[in-house]
Write a structure and sequence with these properties.
This protein is α/β, with parallel strands linked by helices. Helix content is 44%, strand content 11%. This is 3-methyl-2-oxobutanoate hydroxymethyltransferase.
Amino acid sequence: MVTAYDYSSAVHVDSAGIDLILVGDSAAMVAHGHDNTLPISLDLMLQHCRAVVRGAPRPLIVGDLPFGSYEASPAQAVEPAVRLVKEGGVDAVKMEGGAPSRVSAAKAIVEAGIAVMGHVGLTPQAISVLGGFRAQGKTVDGALKVVEAALALQEAGCFAVVLECVPSPVAAAATQALQIPTIGIGAGSLCSGQVLVYHDLLGMFQSPNHSKVTPKFCKQFGNAGAVITKALTEYREHVEARSFPDAACTPSRCPARTLMTSPMCCRRWASMGGLRLPRLPRRPPPTMQRNYWTESRRR
């Protein structure tokens, strides 16, 4: 599983043959520049979901329920879940936490006919309670809580559970205890599957001037950030040196230049489906042009 937040990233993930896409509330951080996932709204999540669905017709797409959309009561949790599926077009929803109230909310959503993915361990929506982005389940008591929460979510009807930032033995114990798949992120290699944030695994944030830091548990499978920065820098340098555009883009080869130089070619290209343009006014006959200039000189 990989996160995606827009059409282009969804196309890339789909083309790579990834099984699941998570439209995560981590969009608040990597797409909108916030320090945590809390500020993103349900309406904004819906926009991200719709864009991803248009770009990835094959994978199973899971939409994150944002903070504040399901905490009050189980009945309240159903409405945003329905909106993510009905308006966002996702196949399932994900929600964080394994407390009794969250388990009840998950059960209510499942009973409403919506597939739910759970999320235990480090739950970013509860960082104020957890004391920040810290690993969970490091003590015996903490490990038991992680496994018990995962079991409770399974009992509520969840089809899978994300295990985030827990020790590998704890993730292995939870995976063995559960009858549903576990998706690990910073939880070792013994989970049923893995999930990473799109920007993290591609190395998108490599600038020393950027505040975003790739988590230690994330392996970077590419250095896309450096490639993008290099391309943009070269573009700026070529424009400043007036070496772009070059001879490769000439009126005979480039439809855009043809539009500005030849109205006839413009209409022909438009008739072939290249562009829809308004009807151009006809030029006046030569005799009218001569009369116009003659009258102008007399004045």
